Amino acid sequence: MMTLDLDRRAAQLNERLGTADTLEILRVTMTEAFPGKVALVSSFGTESAVLLHQLAQIDKAAPIIFLDTGKLFGETKRYRDQLIKLLGLTGVQSVAPDPAQLLERDPKGLLWSQHPNACCTVRKVEPLARALKPYDAWFTGRKAFQASTRADVPVFEVDEGRIKVNPLIHWTKTDLDAYFAQYDLPRHPLEADGYLSIGCMPCTSRVEAGEDARAGRWRGSDKVECGIHLPAGQTAPALAEP
Predict the structure, then answer these.
(1) DSSP assigned state of 158
(2) Which domain range does residue 187 map to?
C-alpha cells in the first residue's frame, strides 16, 4: 500500500477510534481493519500485562512477537512465561537475532558498550522487521507519560510501510496501576527494585524518584529509543555502523 493511502487510512482510524477505549481499538483493528494481519509486539516489561490481558479477551491465539535479544534479564523471560500461562496466550513467538549477523557484528557480545545504536539494530530492529513481514499493522505498548518523546504520539500512525497502533498511548500511570489492581495481574519482578522500563540488561538501570519512567534506559547517553520507535522523519542506524 502506498504511503499516501496509509496516511489516509491512519487518519480515518484516528478519527474513528482516537478517543475510543483500548478494548474497542483492539477489537476493530483485529476483526475489521486488519483481520489476520496484525500482531502485538510485547517486551513483557513492567506494564505489558495490561495490553496482553486486554488482547486475551479478544483472541488468546493472536500473534504476539517477543524479541529475545540475547541480552535480556532472566526475570523478563520468567515473567513472560508466567503471563503466557496465566492469560492462556498461545500465539507468542520468540524472535532472536540472526546468528550470522551476531557473529559478524558482535562476536564478543560487547557491541552494546561500543556502539549501542548498532547493537539495537542487529538485536532488535532487524529481527522485528523480519518478524513483521506477514503483517500490515502492529500494536505497541507505548504510553505518552513514559517520556517527552512520546507525548504527541497518535493512536494510529504510519511506520515503515505499516500502520502502527498505540492503544495505550493515553493511559496514565494511575490508570495502569488501577488496572493491575482490578484484575490482580502480577508485576514484573524487577519493578519493585526501581526498574520502571526494562530492556536489555546492560543498558537498563534503576529510575530515581522524579525521573521519566524511561530515564534508566541507556543512562549517560543521548540515546532514548532502540530504533523500533523513532520520531517521525528519523530512521534506525544502518546495520553496518562502524
Answers:
(1) E
(2) 3-203
Instruction: Say which CATH number the domain at 37 has.
Output: 3.40.50.620
Per the domain annotation, does 61 fall within a domain?
yes
Any domain includes 193: yes
Asked if the structure places residue 214 within a domain, the reply is no
For 167-181, the pLDDT digits (tens) are: 999 999 999 999 999
Residue 46 dihedral angles phi and psi, to the nearest 5°: -65, -30
- Whether the model pTM is above 0.70: yes
Q: Would you tell me how many other CB atoms lie within 10 Å of the CB of residue 159?
A: 17
- Looking at the structure of the chain, the number of domains it has is 1
The SS3 of residue 76 is helix
- pLDDT 10s digits, 31-44: 999 999 999 999 99
Nearest one of 168, 161, 166 to 136, comparing CA atoms: 161
Cell of 47: 506494564
Give dist(CA 231, CA 72) in Å, integer: 25
**Which residue in the list 119, 120, 203, 226 is annotated as catalytic?**
226
Q: pLDDT tens-digit profile of 88-109?
A: 999 999 999 999 999 999 999 9
H/E element holding 157? strand 156-159
Torsion sign, CA atoms 217, 125, 131, 11: positive
How does DSSP classify residue 125? I
Please report whether residue 231 resides in a domain.
no
Amino acid at 81: D
Residue 226 known to be catalytic: yes
